[in-house]
Amino acid sequence: MWIKRDDLSGASLGGNKVRALEFLLGSVRRGDTVLTIGGEGSTHVLATAYYAARLGADVHAIRWRHEMNAMAHTVAARARELCGVVTTTRTFVGAMVRVGWQRATERRTHWIPMGGSSPLGTLGHVNAALELTRQIADGLLPQPRHVVVPLGTGGTAAGLALGFAIAGLPITVVAARIGPRIGANRTRVLRLARATAAFIRRASGQSVPDLGPDAVRVVHDVYGGAYGRALPAGDDAARLLEVWRGIALDATYSAKAFAAAMALTRSTEVPVLFWLTFDGRALRGPAE
Q1: Which residue in 9, 42, 118, 254 is the catalytic one?
Q2: Which domains does the chain have, with CATH numbers?
Q3: Residue 42 annotated in active site
Q4: Which of 47, 50, 87, 237 is the most exposed place for a label (fewest CB within 10 A)?
């Protein structure tokens, strides 16, 4: 098994969300207001708050309550320190209603969608796939047959799958589902990948290949039964990686994906790459 260290993708706070935010925060200026949404323990909300604050913007986060594990509590506290305004609702539906009201009444805000998973944000993960393609060409690792990522809003899986198709690499993105099927599913990933491909065609005038039938596979058996609920197999996998390499995983996303990557590695002889989407530095004190 190989590990792609996206926890090191940002100078101070890494993780996969930084790649989407490079595009989504591109037009933000000092004094602007950024509005985003996520679960109470959302790493997306943390990353958005961190980088928008560094740009001098005010951040309004709308969050909904869900089952919380220890790391989710820590991430939530870090995000709370950085956001100017935090509104927490009891349910996801309530959060979406509040977002609709905020966007209708405060038109001069920069809207960052949940997980950063829009065609514009997904471009960051297309670039990530092309970055890995370059690293393979440079001989830093063998070409994996499977790349394992957690599946929440789908932006990471969609962008990687599209990027590998553009590069002409026969790599399957194995997406480990961490939320309910209604929001985390293969159809959603493929729809987002196709929307991103259409966005690239419009913006560049270049052709973009279609995704093959093996581009994305969803793994369902690491879902904990509720968003944010820890999985015993994920906790075991996280402890192993911390002992093995000193790398921290979060119980909501990356620990479950690593458990899926370990199971896949045991069942195949071809190279597997685990894409580390979480930055454990969020746990070591207030972001600066």
Answers
A1: 42
A2: 2-7+118-283 (3.40.50.1100), 17-115 (3.40.50.1100)
A3: yes
A4: 87
